[in-house]
Every structure is written in C-alpha cells, then in structure tokens.
Automatic annotation (TrEMBL):
It holds the Pfam family Sortase. The keyword Signal does not apply. SUPFAM superfamilies: Sortase. The lineage of its organism: Bacteria, Bacillati, Actinomycetota, Actinomycetes, Micrococcales. The keyword Hydrolase applies. This is Class F sortase. It comes from Flexivirga endophytica. It comes from the Bacteria. Keywords: Hydrolase. Transmembrane segments: none annotated. InterPro entries: Sortase (IPR005754), Sortase_dom-sf (IPR023365), Sortase_F (IPR042001). Coiled coil: none annotated. CDD domains: Sortase_F. GO terms for molecular function: hydrolase activity.
Length: 151
C-alpha cells in the first residue's frame, strides 16, 4: 500500500487520505472522489489511543464519491490503512450505524480510550440541511473498527 491510504477490499475501495480541518464549524471533506479526509482534530493513524476519524463523500455533485460503496460494508470486514510513514494497520469492522446528521455520538470524536477507526460518510434521504447551506443527505453512516494487526 502507498502511504496515506485506506483500502477496503470487501467494498472495492482504495483512496488517498489527506489531512482536513473544519470550515464554518463543519468537517471539511475532500470533494475529489479519490480522496478522503482525516479529521486533523482527531488522533492520527499511529496514535496509541482514541478514535481516528476519516470521512469521505458518498456522492458529490451527483457523482459517486470516495466512500460510495461504504454503505455495503458488513461487521467483520477488514479495513487497511497506511500512515505517512507507510506503516500498514489492519482494522476489523465492529459496527456500522446510521445517525441523524449532526448527532453523531461524542465517543466518535474521543481522543482517549480504546484505539479505533471511524469511517464516516453521508447516507439516507436527501433533504434541506440549513447548516450545510442546501440539500444533502440527512444522515451519516459511522463504521467503527478496532485494530487487529500491524506490519
């Protein structure tokens, strides 16, 4: 694997990871389909604790986004990440849950506690989301995974 990448074989997804911050109180997410954003206020991939949050679009301007296939993931699937140094980490999916937009559990953003990976994308019906300035998916899919191996 190339450095700064996430690969999810079970849903045929391999995309580059770029650091992203916030814009107007919302997570900034790359609009390029081949990229996802590591939310840089969460622990980095090599951190010993806390939840690493990586987010990507399911669609963007009516085009499949980087996490277009993520809604098809199942618990037990393996996700691989490679940090900037090229260290590969395998993660096993524990859950995939849907939450109303803006109502993700606080534990998703935890910088302490068990080491986890959260993959986040939009899902559900399209509706007016004033905070986002227009129409968007009304829900978020949060896939949580725990580390299983490093090589």
């Amino acid at each position: 694997m190339a450095p700064n990448q996430v690969w999810i074989p079970s849903v045929s997804t391999r995309v580059a990871i770029v650091a992203e911050g916030q814009s107007g109180g919302l997570a900034a997410i790359p609009s390029t389909p081949g990229r996802v954003g590591w939310m840089d206020w969460t622990p980095p991939l090599g951190a010993p604790a806390g939840t690493v949050v990586i987010a990507g679009h399911v669609t963007f301007n009516n085009v499949p986004g980087s996490f277009y296939r993520l809604p098809n993931i199942k618990p037990g699937a393996v996700v691989y990440t490679a940090n900037g140094a090229g260290t590969v980490q395998a993660w096993r999916v524990q859950s995939a849950n849907i939450y109303p937009k803006g109502k993700l559990p606080a534990s998703v953003w935890s910088s302490t506690g068990p080491r986890r990976l959260a993959l986040v994308t939009c899902t559900g019906n399209i509706g007016l989301v004033p905070k986002q300035g227009g129409y968007a998916h009304l829900d978020n899919l949060v896939v949580l995974a725990a580390p299983v191996a490093t090589r």
